[in-house]
Structure formats: C-alpha cells, structure tokens
Design a protein that fits this description.
The chain is an all-beta fold. The chain is built from no helices and 11 strands.
Length: 124
C-alpha cells in the first residue's frame, strides 16, 4: 500500500508564493510518475503539473506555465509544487497523485494513488 500526504497549503495574497509538499510512504516502489491536480469549488479536478520518476520529464498546464514548478526528491520520498505569482483563480484543493507508469499523464483516471488534498486560498 502507498500513501500520499500533502502539506504546505494555506492562505496567501495574490502575487505571493507557496510550496506544496507530497510525502510518499509505504510501498514507494509502486509509484513512478507523480502529478499535482487541483479542484476549485464547483469545478472538475484539473491537471496542474507532473514529473517522471527521475525528474527528466515534466509537464505543466498552460494556465500555470512559467509560474508553477514541479520537482521531487526520491531520497526523501517527496514531491513538490512551487507556486509563484499566485492568482485568485488558484484557490483550490491541491492533490498529489501517483502511479506505477513512468509518465505523468494529464488524465486523473490514470492515477491509482491520491493524497487527501491541501487547501490553497489566494486572497485578492
């Protein structure tokens, strides 16, 4: 069994930054690619960014390109999402997800393991 636990969410002013972390525990060998998704109130969950196991491949949604950056530290079994120049529309619950394939697909249906989410609120 694999568990993912997000942390680092909170309240931030528009234009500010936050760094989310995702701790991976249990059968860490079950997880290769990791991704971040977010879900705003009344909207479907959407892909934000993803990263392959060794970090050699990353993907990021157009809406956050140049402002959000994904990374991971496999020695610590952690993944991160650095969010800069946050906008009010970035208010959402942010989830990390993982799966055994080493490609960060943008479809949430491809992911088998999810964290419980962390709330990010951007005040305007």
């Amino acid at each position: 069994q694999v568990m993912l636990v997000e942390s680092g969410g909170g309240l931030v002013q528009a234009g500010g930054s936050l760094r989310l972390s995702c701790a991976i525990s249990g059968r860490t060998d079950y997880v290769a690619a990791m991704a971040w998704f977010r879900q705003s109130a009344g909207k479907e969950r959407e892909f934000v960014s993803g990263i392959s196991y060794n970090g050699g491949y990353t993907d990021v949604a157009e809406s956050v390109k140049g402002r959000f950056f994904v990374s991971r530290d496999n020695a610590k079994n952690e993944a991160y999402l650095e969010m800069d120049i946050l906008e009010h529309r970035g208010t959402a619950v942010y989830y990390c997800a993982g799966h055994a394939q080493d490609y960060p697909w943008q479809s949430e249906g491809d992911y088998t393991t999810w964290g419980q989410g962390t709330q990010v609120t951007v005040s305007s």
